[in-house]
Amino acid sequence: MEKDSTNKRVNKKTNKKNNNVKKKKVKNKNMTKENNIKTKPKKKKRWKKVLLIILLILLILGGIFAYRVYKNGGGLSGLLATAVGHNENTKKNLGEFKCLVLGISTDEKGALLTDTIMVASYNPNTQKATLLSIPRDTYTGKNPKRATSNDKINSVYSRHEDPQDVLDEVNEITGLDLKYYIIVKTEGFIKLVDAIGGVTFNVPIDMDYDDTSQDLHIHLKAGEQLLDGDKAEQLVRFRHNNDGSSYPEEYGDNDTGRMRTQRDFIMAVIKQTAKVENIFKLGQILDVAKENVITNIDFNVAKDYIPYAVEFNTENLLTATLPGENTNNNTAGTWIFVCDEEETEALVQELFYDRDIIEEQTDGNITSNETNTTSNTISSTTSKSKSDIKIEVLNGSGVSKNLQLAVNALKGAGYNVSRTGETNTTSKTVIMDKKSVGDTTLKNIKEALDEGQIEYSESSSSKVDVVIIIGKDYNN
Description:
With 476 residues, the chain is an alpha/beta fold. It is built from 13 helices and 19 strands.
């Protein structure tokens, strides 16, 4: 009995001890829970602070970026300029960019043909650009009396496939110091037009031509239409039809007409490429360029100009053709184009050097040379009065009354409209200087019509000083 009592006392103490341990554990457990409950809000508050700091940093960085975009001119141009690291002084320090542009195709024998030769320039500060066409038949030798087809500029590249050879010849002819070139293969041209969804363009005349040696087949109807890459190639390579007919004289026949069409189409391509929806196709466009364009333009050079070029307005594009004459007065009877050195020097000076300077106008006042801010060509100054200037007006608008409206507007401004007529339907009104009537006169004629792109198309055989083609855009 005594042993049982002792055991009971021991068990009682043990149970009491165990109960105390359990209570302690429960108490500790409860304390841990309380501590956990207390610490959770602290962690949430800490994360909130971190998020607020991150958001604040992002807002500050975004504000700085937005400010830099604003300082870089805003819009898409300012955005791209800021993205590539430009500041507000970058553009100011950029000069006019000039390069040679060649369009190359291949005939069935593998011979390289130079279909397009142009000098292009772009000034990011004035947002003005120039395209000077070099006729394919331009003579590059020393004695035109002994000229052969190998002396034409379009054969220079095919000799050694060296762009520098063409660059040297063009610099010799123009007096320019071009350092850059861009060679576009026909395949690349076709793919580019397809990549941007085609180009809407007003084909000036019916085109019907076949050349099996080049696997070239051109079959286009006149009128405004959406051209895919294949049709675009047909357009820019057309010179004449199978029956020998070509562009009308007032447009510029054969090679002159083709160069004009090429320049107009390039303007249309620029407009189409610059559309917002095509910005997202930049990767595809760059892939086409990588495979089909040969150039020595360094990426860092291109990077500096591209942000500002995206907002270029084609209304500020000046176009011109190298002045000279076609002749076959040589022992081989080969047709060549011989440029007029004096006129070429004067034209190049005005196109690439004098366009943005202050000059003295014929009335004696000093004004900024803002003449020809639309797609046009600069010509020399004349002292003819309005009544002495003979103007031919051709209706290409498709609306018969527009011809009389244009004539009335010109006569009302004091001009002598000596000839009128109808021509193929065209989208743009064009004012062509045939006799170097001068910038001031051309500008005044444009103001009288309230419409028109000015172009230089001098012709010694022309019976009028100015030819005006009224297009669909004419609405007087």
